TrEMBL record:
<dbReference type="InterPro" id="IPR004360">
    <property type="entry name" value="Glyas_Fos-R_dOase_dom"/>
</dbReference>
<dbReference type="Pfam" id="PF00903">
    <property type="entry name" value="Glyoxalase"/>
</dbReference>
<protein>
    <submittedName>
        <fullName>VOC family protein</fullName>
    </submittedName>
</protein>
<dbReference type="InterPro" id="IPR029068">
    <property type="entry name" value="Glyas_Bleomycin-R_OHBP_Dase"/>
</dbReference>
<feature type="domain" description="VOC">
    <location>
        <begin position="4"/>
        <end position="122"/>
    </location>
</feature>
<dbReference type="InterPro" id="IPR037523">
    <property type="entry name" value="VOC_core"/>
</dbReference>
Length: 125
């Protein structure tokens, strides 16, 4: 199957205020290689797909909306672990982790600015 995505560029109103949240969350999600890019906090994946990255940059007028970025986890236990990482990092409006429907276990949360995320484990039948 071809690569489905290359990277995520996320905006926050203050990169300085967002740094500690993303420095805790992104490595836990598998973005483990910090890359020096001016005006960005950027982490690359060292696994598959190699080179995929998640970058955060400042846009002072950014306002979060209803979009959500969801990350897949290998197991319900991994969802639980990542939920704990997000909580310790300062996630807001946390819902779960819990089963939402048969074969679907997830946690929903927001970064300190209201950008929405999900970590889920789905049993594919």
């Amino acid at each position: 199957m071809p690569r489905l995505y290359d990277h995520i560029d996320l905006r926050v109103p203050s990169l300085r205020d967002a740094a500690s949240f993303y420095e805790a969350l992104l490595p836990a999600l598998g973005f483990t290689r910090l890359v020096d890019v001016e005006d960005w906090l950027q982490y690359e994946s060292t696994g598959e797909p190699a080179g995929a990255f998640f970058g955060v940059t400042e846009s002072p007028t950014h306002v979060a909306n209803e979009n959500r970025i969801a990350f897949w986890a290998e197991s319900d236990g991994e969802v639980d672990r990542l939920a704990e990482v997000a909580l310790r990092a300062g996630a807001r409006n946390v819902e779960g982790p819990m089963p939402y429907e048969a074969g679907y276990y997830a946690v929903f949360f927001e970064d300190p600015f209201g950008n929405r995320f999900e970590v889920c484990h789905r049993v594919v039948v």
